[in-house]
Amino acid sequence: MTMLQIVRVLVASLIIASAVGDEIKNVLLLLADDAGLEMGAYLNKFSQTSNLDALARRGLLFNNAFTSVSSCSPSRAQLLTGQASHSNGMYGLHHSVHNFNVLPSIQSLPNVLRENSNGRILSGIIGKKHVGTADHFRFDFEETEERHPINQIGRNITNIKLYTREFLRQAKAQAKPFFLMIGFHDPHRCGHITPQYGEFCERWGSGEEGMGTIPDWKPIYYDWRNLDIPAYLPVTDVVRKELAAQYMTISRLDQGVGLVLKELETLGFANNTLVMYTSDNGPPFPAARTNLYERGIKSPFILASPNAEDRHHETTGAMVSLLDVYATILDAFHLSTNNSAFSSKSLMPLLRKEPRPQDDDAVYGSHSYHEITMDYPMRMIRTRQYKLIHNLNYWSYFPIDQDFYTSPTFQQILNATLHRDNLPWYRSLQSYYERPEWELYNIKSDSMERHNLAEQPEYKNVLKVLKQRLHEWQASTNDPWLCAPHAVLQAQGIYKENPVCLTLGHESL
Amino acid sequence: MTMLQIVRVLVASLIIASAVGDEIKNVLLLLADDAGLEMGAYLNKFSQTSNLDALARRGLLFNNAFTSVSSCSPSRAQLLTGQASHSNGMYGLHHSVHNFNVLPSIQSLPNVLRENSNGRILSGIIGKKHVGTADHFRFDFEETEERHPINQIGRNITNIKLYTREFLRQAKAQAKPFFLMIGFHDPHRCGHITPQYGEFCERWGSGEEGMGTIPDWKPIYYDWRNLDIPAYLPVTDVVRKELAAQYMTISRLDQGVGLVLKELETLGFANNTLVMYTSDNGPPFPAARTNLYERGIKSPFILASPNAEDRHHETTGAMVSLLDVYATILDAFHLSTNNSAFSSKSLMPLLRKEPRPQDDDAVYGSHSYHEITMDYPMRMIRTRQYKLIHNLNYWSYFPIDQDFYTSPTFQQILNATLHRDNLPWYRSLQSYYERPEWELYNIKSDSMERHNLAEQPEYKNVLKVLKQRLHEWQASTNDPWLCAPHAVLQAQGIYKENPVCLTLGHESL
Asked: Do residues A414 and B507 lie in contact, with contact meaning Cβ atoms separated by under 8 Å?
């Protein structure tokens, strides 16, 4: 090390010391792919997740965390920009023919961290990235599907461990605070691409014949006969087998979390790193992923602070959105963000004190596409008691994505429908396809969202208030779909100062 | 000039001389914005277009040229890639919240010309570009809306003239063959953004009070009382006034064409430049732009060769697609392209000989979006006799774009509908909004597309054959919407070698 380098390190250390007043110097974001609440900490009786459960005990476990969008790329874009998908431009999937990217003007977390800290904070991503353009999400350290096979970088937990080690060593050598995001590809399905590895790639790397071996993974095999089926899924053995495969894959994710946290400890960062765990969207089952129903948006969320004064081994009932991750991470680094009423809000204060629940607590949802062909935009507000969904293309049948279509669960539902067979499911495929423009549910009494109250006279006022709040959120976040589907948004020319929704006259036909 | 530079120029000249065997050395593509056939050469009795008419006399005038997509950015992407919008990824508008870009793998004309000629060919674009990403469409010379106000670079014909001069001088100084594209912004509407300049910006630069002056423009004022109304528009004075404004703007475009051609002559390129004139899509009136009806896709098209042996002052009835522009330009430079059955086909042979019309002559259409919120994908095949349109989101009302919505013509239609007033129009707003999944028209006897034959038993076989051909085109051009709206495309895993459309069971509900 030259003298100049030594001076630089010393100066950098001083800046860090002065900028970070408490014990949090770094942030680690652990992100699952299509995971719901299938973990012990959330009282799932079967899925063994000892590492996640231990992390939950170290931190704050959220019972009311929601993603604002139920699709992979848009969800990751929300995390990294703090903006709803309709605001940041990531309206659907990033890869292949879908080709969605954020708008040119959008700033993302790695770029903002670099620029606002003058390069002081080191950013890294390991695993699945799935957002773009590359320039808009430029991490200092990137080991993602852009340069590795997705399974090798997203499901091979030994690789994830080793790259984590490499990144942490760099952070240590450079004496920089860091933001590291680990994008696990588990427990995503893979049956429609590589069915030879099992529907969830649960056999891949298991050491079985032809499956290869992930050295650090100790597969947990579940006997499907033992499993209970969540209320929103058909009660069939096909579904039980799906769950057994999903849980096996979740065990790989869970052990990966354990390996990463162990690296953090070994390299001496356990005591100054804020750890977050969540998932991009709900599991790939009906009424879950690609939906704004509860199983599509309810997110596992753990916030574990190294600070002794912060809350540990507690749960919180605060209503939070994954949109808040952005502001939380900036706050952890003591950097500020815009603080408009509807923007991303830091969750750091929750580490000190549980807020009193308010009647108007709410989170919002905005889902437009998943695949480019799945044009079924939806907007949502969910309070503690109610959920209102606005289906903007309600004329059309609800779309089914390629990945979910080939799943045994969907195939069973489809075939039962085609053959008019009975299926022990809480709803029909027809009701799943055909949705009204407005769906209003009393979540407290109807968590399955079976009874649409939108047309019930006694809920007229609830509906009116929620519609109004949803519209205000859309307006304040510049939703291009603000006036859809029965009016046209005009926001230029004579309407520049006062954007308006002008009728298409559908109601007069 | 150093000796080395002189040698370089000499070598470059030798390469050109050996590579180009006939008199065509350069290509000039003149592109109008939302123009239809409103010109003297196409027998419009009112719109004065002396420069375009003169160009038509110098070349070949196409009576059966069609754009494959009726929206600005997708159309320009088709011209510059030779691929349908569903293949190149430019599914809708490029700018603002729409944010469409071509797929990462796509090659465009300027890039291909540069790479395949080792930089020998100079490319330039002046005026409206409206495609992206920038890297995917990298012209050597760019003076576009990306660095100028759109009116100044797209409607100010003096600016267009001066930048053309600058580009041609560069080509001359570098002794390089060139491809120059001029993207006129006329006769696009502007009423919803800058109504103070008139609905088509027809007063902008006219020298009237507060309008500024375009030095080279001699505005032509039309008395709306004299004008005839095309059969597809409501017969009202509101529409007559719209046409008068549109024609006035077309006169600016026409004079711009004259100025550009004059520069070509002055700089000595008139005798070795292939000139093309066309428009991105039909005019911004109902059943035209954003539609695959005849007025939305029928394109003005002139191909004027400097070669004495080529056809001049003739018309051709060949069925051609704007997709063919790409291959034509490569062919003009003696560069080859992939020659699959459905790819872009060079029009150069038409300059020598009129082909015999074939019964199965056909062009195809693929329109998915315009604005991001306008999810109304359509696919089309048009033969000499029939047109089949597949409306993939036929459940929904046909969408109206922001620009067209505020137009006096649409406002009149809407208000007449809202107030149940009679309107002398060939169709109702309801029939315009509500379209069946399949539309089959006998264009020869029903050019207004009023009588849908799709459900007529006697056209069952015609329907079947056209559906089959349309499906084959979509399959061979990798249409992500191949199976929409009643099935899911599976093209990975076990279906990788043999992609299939698997049913969603809509018909069984």
From this structure: no
How far from chain centre, in Å, is Cα B73? 9
- How far is Cα A370 from Cα B95, in angstroms, rounded to an integer? 21
Q: Are B100 and B375 in contact (CB under 8 A)?
A: no
Q: Terminus-to-terminus CA distance in chain B, angstroms?
A: 78
User: How do strand A26-32 and strand A60-62 relate by DSSP bridges?
Assistant: unpaired
Number of cross-chain residue pairs from A and B with Cβ atoms under 8 Å apart:
134
> Is residue A201 a contact partner of residue A249, using CB atoms and an 8 Å limit?
yes
List CB contacts (< 8 A) between A195 and chain B. 493-494
Report which of A235, A259, A143, A246 is spatially closest to residue A202, judged by C-alpha positions.
A246
State the helix-helix crossing angle for B324-332 and B109-116, rounded to 10 degrees.
Answer: 30
Classify residue B352 by its DSSP letter: T
Token pair of B129 as six digits: 């570009």
CATH code of A26-357, in short, is 3.40.720.10
Q: Residue B150: what residue type? A: I
On whether the CB atoms of residues A65 and A75 are closer than 8 A, the answer is no
Give dist(CA B450, CA A36) in Å, integer.
52
B411 touches chain A (CB under 8 A): no
Q: Residue B418: list chain A partners with CB under 8 A.
A: 503, 505, 508
**pLDDT by residue for chain A (509 residues), tens digit each?**
455 454 444 444 433 333 333 589 999 999 999 999 999 999 999 999 999 999 999 999 999 999 999 999 999 999 999 999 999 999 999 999 999 999 999 999 999 999 999 999 999 999 999 999 999 999 999 999 999 999 999 999 999 999 999 999 999 999 999 999 999 999 999 999 999 999 999 999 999 999 999 999 999 999 999 999 999 999 999 999 999 999 999 999 999 999 999 999 999 999 999 999 999 999 999 999 999 999 999 999 999 999 999 999 999 999 999 999 999 999 999 998 765 666 799 999 999 999 999 989 999 999 999 999 999 999 999 999 999 999 999 999 999 999 999 999 999 999 999 999 999 999 999 999 999 999 999 999 999 999 999 999 999 999 999 999 999 999 999 999 999 999 999 999 999 999 999 999 999 98
Q: State the Cα–Cα distance between residues A143 and A149, nearest whole angstrom.
A: 10
DSSP 8-state assignment for residue A310: S
B91, B395, B433: residue with CB nearest A372? B91
What is the pTM assigned to this prediction?
0.94
Cβ of B400 within 8 Å of Cβ of A490? The answer is: no
Q: Following CA atoms A459, A464, A467, A469 in sequence, which dihedral angle do they give, to the nearest 10 degrees?
A: -110
When CB atoms are compared, the residue of A99, A429, A490 closest to B402 is A490
B329 in Cβ contact with B27 (< 8 Å): yes
Parse chain A into domains and list their residue ranges: 26-357, 365-479, 480-508
Nearest to A481 by CA among B333, B41, B402: B402
Closest CA to A372 of B308, B172, B366, B92: B92
Per DSSP, helices labelled H in B82-200 are 85-88, 109-116, 150-154, 157-174
ipTM: 0.93
Q: Which long-range contacts (CB under 8 A, 24 or more apart) does A8-15 make?
A: A9/A174, A9/A175, A12/A120, A12/A174, A12/A175, A12/A176, A13/A175, A15/A120
With left for phi above 0 and alpha for psi between -120 and 50, is residue B198 left, alpha or beta? left
Residue B6 to residues B12, B167, B178, Cα–Cα distance (Å): 10, 21, 20
CATH class held by domain A365-479? alpha beta
Nearest chain A residue (CA) to B411: A504
**Smallest Cα distance from A371 to chain B, Å:** 9
Place of tokens 């009786």: A45
Beta strands of B237-285 (E only): which ranges?
Answer: 273-279
